[in-house]
Each structure stands twice: as C-alpha cells, then as structure tokens.
Design goal:
Elements lengths: L63 E4 L32 E9 H8 L4 H10 L2 E6 L3 E8 L1 H14 L33 E2 L2 H9 L12 H15 L15 H4 L3 H10 L3 E5 L15 H5 L3 H10 L6 H11 L4 E4 L6 H14 L13 E4 L3 H13 L7 E4 L5 H10 L3 E4 L1 H9 L10 E4 L2 H6 L3 H9 L6 E6 L4 H6 L8 E5 L10 E7 L5 H10 L7 E4 L3 H13 L4 E4 L5 H12 L5 E4 L14 E4 L6 H8 L9 E7 L4 H13 L6 H23 L29
Helix pairs in contact: 2-3, 10-11, 14-16, 22-23
Bound molecules: adenosine-5'-diphosphate (ADP) and magnesium ion (MG).
Magnesium ion (MG) binds next to helix 11.
C-alpha cells in the first residue's frame, strides 16, 4: 500500500515527465565517509532510495504494475509504482500466447511486497521454481497477481503464492469468468465492490465482453424498501449493546470557582482559546478550563503519576480546555496548532473512559479505544506515545499496512484495549472478521481533515458501520478546511469544538518562516547552499512534491557524500520506518520526504523545514512548517516559491502575516498577477457565454479552500 502522493502540474493535472537529472553543482564532498551501514552515503547503494529504476511508476496507464524481467515483454521495463490517478487495471494482449488462460489472484496491497520480495527476488524465485510467469497489477487497495503458463505451472505458482500470503488476506471465487462478477467492473468486466476473488480468465474478459458474451444482467435494486428497512435494521443491529458510560468529570473546586470574566481572560491569555457548542437548539454549559493537571485528573492517581514521570509542568491550552469537555462525555472537535500536545489531549480521557465502563474488561470481547490516523508513521508514533503512559495495564496495538499482518492479527487475538490504525489495514481485518469493533466506545480521528480530504472516507465509513453509534468521538487537527467541517457531521453527535488561536489557517508562531522566490532550475543550488551552511546540531526535513524528486534529490545529496534518508510511499515499509528512525536518532540529519511526513510526526529536534517544492494545498504548508518548533521550541522554515506556484501566493500571504513574518514584495506581486490573470480568464470565459462549472481550466483551486472540493487525491 502506498501513500497519497500524486504529481501535479500547476494546473493540478497529473504529469508524466521523468525526473530531470540535476545539473552538477559546485558542492564539494565535505568528507570521504561515503557509506555507513544502511544509510546512503554514495552511489552504489542506489536501492536505498526506494524504487529501483525498473520499478518506477508507469504513468501512461492507470494503476501500477510489476512485471518480472523474465519471459515475454522483453525490452519493456518492469514498472512498479503507485500512480493513483486511476484505479483502472490493465490487461496485456502479449500474454495471450500462453497455453492456459491466466489465473488471477487478488491480494491486498500489503501482501504484494511479500510476493515480489526485495528487488523482485521472490517473484523471480517463484517463476523459476514453477515455470509460470507472474505479473502484478497494483490497484488502490488490492493487487492482482496474474499467473501465466501451463495449468500445472499456474497451479503450483498459485499454491506457493497462497502460502506466502496465507493468512486470510484474500478469498477465492474460482471458475468465475471475467464479466460475470457484476457490479459494472473496470476494464474487462472485473468484479467490483469491495469483494476480492480469483478470476480464471481476466485477460480474455474484455474480448469476450466485446464479442457480446457474458454481459452481466443488471439486478434491479429496490431502494425504497432498503431505505424503509434501514431504521429497523439499525435498531436490530445495536439492540443488544452492553451499557456504556461517558461522564467521568468531577469539576475541581478551584475550577468551579472561576468567574466568567476570569475564564474569558484566561482563555484569551492562553493563545486565544475558543469553545463552541455545535449542538443545534438549546446550548449546553461549556466547562471551565483546567489550568493544572491536578484540576483535571485529581481523582485519577495513576494518571497523575504518569504525568509526573514524563515531567510536564502544565497542560497545553488545548489540553486545558479539551479535557473537561471530553471527560464530560461530549464529542469534540479539537483544533490546535501543530506540536501542542493533541495526542495526550485525547489519550488520557480515553484511558479513564475505558476504565470506567460498566462491562468488565474481560467480558468486552475486543478493544475499547480506536485511534485512526492517515499515515503508518503517525500510527506508529501515537502507539509509542500511548505506551509511555501506563494505565491499568492497558495494551495497545498498531495496525497498519505494510506491517506484519499475521503478527497484528495474533496480537489482536491475544486481547488488546487500544487500537491505533490506518483505515486501510483496519478495514481489511474488519472485512475478514479478524477484529471486533463493536466493543469500541471511544473513537479518535487524528489528523481528521487529512483523512477525510484525502479519500479515506469510504474506508472509515465501513469501519464505523461496526462501531456503536452512541460512542464518544473526538476529531483533531491543526487545520479545519470548510469542506471537512461539513463532512464531520456524519461522524460526531452534537459535538463541542475547541480551537486554539484561530480557525483561519495559522502556522505555529514559534517558527520563523522565510519565503524565497526562485526559478525552478535554481532550486537545487538553494538547497545545496542551505545544507552547506547547516550547523552541526541542525536537522532538516526537506519536503518535495513527488516521490521521484525525493529519490532524485536524495541521490544527488548522497552523491555529494552527505548522510541522507528519504521517505515516501514507494519505499518498502521497513525502509520507511528505518528512514524515520535514522532521522529521529540523528544518524542522518537530512530527511527528504513527500507529504507523507507532513502530518503529525513529532521529531522534537528538527530545527529546519525546507520546502523544496511548494505543497499542493495551503493546509499542508501549515502542517509541514509544524514539523519544527514543536512543544514550544523554536524552529525555522524556508520555502522556495517559483512562478509555477503563483496560485498559492495569495493563500500564503495571510499565513505569514498572521505569524508576523516578513512578506516578500515579490510574493505580493505574484499574488496580484495571479488574481488579475484569474479575473481575466473569468471574464473571457463568461464572454464566451459558457464557462459553467469553473471555466474549463482544469484547476482544482477554484479560489476556495473547501476540503472536499479538492476531491480525493490519495492513491493507496
Ligand atoms: P500535536 O498532535 O498537537 O501536533 P503532539 O501530541 O505530537 O502534538 O505533541 C508534541 C510534543 O509535545 C510531544 O513530544 C508531547 O510529548 C509533548 N507534550 C504533550 N503535552 C505536553 C505538555 N503538557 N507539556 C509539554 N510537552 C507536552
Ligand atoms: Mg498530532
């Protein structure tokens, strides 16, 4: 499974150009220590930076595929990538020369890596030992393993592949012909709709369909009856739910005694906290903030011990105001700047909530708390954070794609209390009935806007189908785009909203932000200059827009003899984790990453964020900048802006202004030029008498920041 990164040109259209090799720079090798362990210091270790050449995305077609180098198709590269522009899948005519129709197995994407093996080693081994040829198409959530060759070879290969992924990650529907799977499938009449299976003849499906064969009969669906039955079904579904408790808050006397003026003054002084009751009709009492840990958790001695152990002095503003709301059992949207302790804000009330449930832990039959996050790295980080706070012996588990699925299943079976998960993998375990979600009473969507904006919604919706509707739900982020605000209504019930500072986009004010207007071709020398001037204690996270650029730039830095790591979605999960580990423990001080790393990651000693490519949307700018200056520390962000980024200029200016940063004159001019250009285009389009729906410029921005308006951009 991959991340969401996509590659857009200035008009937000997928681009297909190969990464340019950089012009040589004047940068001299600072020392000759070229390779050290698995950290790349030189050219020889080219695979350290993710996909080797032949595995790169084939941009000319939807989906992505891996084809081993053996057998037919010589001269064609073996592309492997995760271009997510299109979930469509491809079939290849040149395989038709094989004697038996190909067999297709559908496996979840996470298992694809196991079949391919490092550098394609496993797939070659499979081919050699079976005599079959194997091709893999990677889709959005699942991969297709197509096996060519004699039926004996196919059978043998199929069995070996089953063994490789043999833990229930796929199901078979043998003997079904392409086109018989119904549901308006993609390409050659594939089955569609969340099920997985085996096609015995996928390659021929399209041809058969064209010949008029096997066109599936449309089943008419009686939507009215379905709608009528929905309420009854819901009632039945949740009929036998065990009792649940949500209110655990006893307001401390020192908190109750605060006057309205004192509360308002305190909120203002603490980064301008604002609390809103989003319940329609009569509004509820908004609890006063807890200014100390004691005020929030006095009755919970074990929590207080934990806090003493980590040595925190006082709650952050979001914690002060979110804790009384959450402990009172209300749903909450918590919006606060990056690095201000939102994780702890939801973890501690979650512990208390779980412990206070009337059903004894042993009888719940599953976990009590679920935290959903958009990236694997963030899920792992939250789990680490969670483990820091021991409470009642609660066990947590991280369920994420690319991780050891079998191991995760075993841990779940062994009994866990807290699940921290990425939606894809959790959905996979849920669909295979390997995890019970009905026991969950406390749900968190961390970086909620990212998950909803980037296309996780269908998976989250499926997950929620199994979680009791009367649960307590918390959503957090540092940004809250308007499109997501609307969506959040389907997840929360009468929530309160706490936000710190402003709901307008604002970067954390402990980061000094510098914006440089440059030409595209100058970018490399800027980044090299920056690195040349780094001090020994500096640590920089360099953000790029594309996976290929991440590979390219990190290779270039590597060639200069620099210790560097890269992090993006085309890298194997173990390499991703290693890259982050190397960066965290300062084995490398330069990490080149895509926006995979923009959310949530808490590497406390990052001193600089370098935006080599401007992010796709302005929210990501705020999150990227927030990777430094965490928990009150200071940091610096350098952002390169080129002419191609002109549409972002007017959105960047207010963020700089809000944080009291210098706004370069050139940026203002750029914004003005873009606004002029936009209005001229609008006039031109309206002059043509058409222009409905945005004037056909193919831009996503449309001048608004509505989250969902941008549409899903993820490719998983
Ligand atoms: P966010 O989710 O808001 O971006 P995190 O939850 O990742 O921020 O927290 C950032 C850092 O602040 C973490 O290292 C965390 O341990 C630390 N932290 C959390 N709460 C406090 C506190 N009350 N005082 C000091 N540091 C804190
Ligand atoms: Mg966070």
């Amino acid at each position: 499974m991959s991340d969401w990164e996509e590659e857009y040109n200035e008009d937000s259209v997928d681009i297909q150009k190969p990464a340019k090799k950089s012009a040589p720079t004047e940068w001299k090798l600072p020392h000759d220590d070229r390779r050290r362990g698995n950290v790349c210091f030189g050219v020889r270790n080219e695979n350290r930076f993710g996909a080797p050449r032949e595995w790169r995305a084939d941009r000319s077609a939807g989906g992505s595929e891996y084809r081993s180098r053996r057998g037919g198709g010589e001269g064609r590269p073996c592309p492997w990538g995760t271009d997510r522009g299109d979930a469509g899948r491809r079939t290849y005519g040149d395989e038709k020369s094989d004697c038996s129709p190909p067999v297709t197995i559908t496996v979840e994407n996470a298992s694809v890596g196991r079949i391919i093996g490092r550098g394609g080693a496993k797939i070659r081994e499979l081919e050699e030992s079976t005599g079959a040829r194997i091709k893999i198409n990677k889709g959005d959530y699942e991969g297709e393993v197509v096996i060519f060759g004699s039926s004996a070879a196919q059978q043998k290969a199929k069995e070996m592949i089953e063994d490789l992924v043999a833990d229930g990650s796929y199901r078979f529907r043998n003997g079904m012909k392409g086109g018989q799977h119904g549901g308006g499938g993609v390409g050659g009449g594939y089955r569609n709709g969340g099920d997985v299976g085996v096609r015995s003849d996928s390659v021929w499906g399209a041809a058969e369909l064209q010949a008029g064969n096997a066109v599936p009969a449309r089943i008419s669906i009686d939507w009215n009856t379905i709608r009528e039955n929905k309420d009854k079904y819901e009632e039945l579904k949740w009929k036998d739910l065990p009792p649940m408790k949500k209110k655990f808050y006893t307001e401390a006397e020192s908190v109750s005694m605060l006057t309205a003026e004192e509360v308002s003054e305190w909120r203002k002084e603490n980064n301008n906290i604002f609390v809103d009751d989003l319940k329609e009709g009569e509004k509820r009492h908004i609890p006063n903030p807890c200014r100390t840990f004691m005020e929030a958790f006095e009755p919970y001695a074990e929590i207080m011990e934990n806090i003493e152990q980590v040595g925190f002095v006082k709650p952050t503003p979001i914690q002060s105001q979110a804790w009384p709301v959450m402990l009172s059992g209300e749903d909450l949207i918590a919006i606060a700047q990056t690095g201000t302790g939102k994780t702890l804000a939801y973890l501690l009330p979650g512990f208390i909530h779980m412990d206070g449930q009337p059903v004894p832990r042993a009888e719940r039959g599953g976990p009590g708390m679920l935290v959903l996050t958009p990236t694997r790295e963030l899920a792992l980080q939250i789990e680490t954070e969670c483990k820091k706070y021991r409470y009642k012996g609660y066990k947590s588990i991280c369920i994420y794609g690319g991780g050891d699925r079998r191991g995760q299943i075993n841990l779940v079976k062994g009994g866990v209390d807290i699940v921290i998960a990425t939606p894809g993998r959790l959905n996979d375990l849920q669909m295979n009935e390997l995890i019970n979600l009905r026991s969950i009473t406390y749900l968190v969507l961390d970086e909620a806007d990212r998950m909803l904006d980037m296309g996780f919604e269908p998976q989250i919706m499926k997950i929620l189908l199994d979680i009791r509707p009367d649960r307590q739900t918390v959503m957090t982020s540092a940004t809250w785009p308007t499109g997501v605000r609307r969506l959040s209504k389907s997840y929360l019930k009468n929530p309160m909203m706490v936000y710190v500072g402003t709901l307008d986009l604002a970067a954390v004010n402990t980061v000094q932000q510098t914006v440089l207007i440059v030409h595209e071709e100058e970018k490399k020398s800027y980044v090299f200059d920056f690195i040349r001037n780094m001090q020994p204690q500096d640590k920089v996270l360099i953000f790029v827009g594309k996976k290929l650029v991440a590979d390219d730039l990190s290779s270039d830095l590597c060639l200069q003899g620099l210790a560097v790591q890269s992090l993006h979605g085309d890298r194997e999960q173990c390499d991703r984790e290693e890259a982050l580990k190397d960066f965290k423990n300062s084995r490398v001080r330069i990490l080149v990453a895509t926006d995979l790393a923009s959310r949530g990651l808490d590497v406390h000693d990052i001193t600089h964020v370098f935006n080599y490519d401007f992010p796709r949307n302005i929210e990501e700018y705020v999150h990227r900048v927030g990777r430094t200056g965490r928990a009150g520390r200071t940091g610096a962000a350098v952002t390169l802006v080129t002419r191609e980024n002109w549409r972002m200029a007017s959105e960047l200016i207010p963020i700089l202004e809000r944080a009291g940063q210098e706004v370069p004159e050139e940026l203002v001019l750029m914004a003005e030029r873009y606004e002029k250009h936009k209005s001229e285009k609008e006039m031109y389009n309206s002059g043509r008498g058409g222009g409905g729906g945005g004037g056909g410029w193919g831009r996503r921005d449309g001048g608004g920041r509505g989250g969902s308006a941008r549409g899903p951009k993820c490719g998983f």
